[in-house]
């Protein structure tokens, strides 16, 4: 079978929605890959945190904790939302409250702004997460023998695609 527009042979692909693949098979295939990888990543973050012995934390809680631990400096809720590309700020507010109650983060008011940072307990938990990640994930990843430059290129492409989706979301909002 041949694609009438490009005269390329049609490939049998795994797509999220066949009716959308008619518009762009490659984009639909990418979207399905992102959906599956995203679900697996979120499940991994939650299970890894459970292996650390914590109470149940969802993927956003884990991402907020790691984001606050990153670079060792305090951040505002708006900074966290921007860095994680989270539009629903109330979900980050809830995560910060939950993490505060667990003693993993603390907030301090500076002027009119609240700045959050991880506590020693939060940093220790992130280190334990990193240790479990090294044991359960990194070795398997390294066995795939994927060129690090390819991973770097893919990461950049995914960030670029997120920009396209954000732009399309703004355009769709105006319709």
UniProtKB/TrEMBL annotation:
GO molecular function: DNA-binding transcription factor activity
Superkingdom: Bacteria
Identification of the protein by name: Putative transcription regulator, contains HTH domain (MarR family)
Residue stretches spanning the membrane: none
Residues of the HTH marR-type domain: 57-122
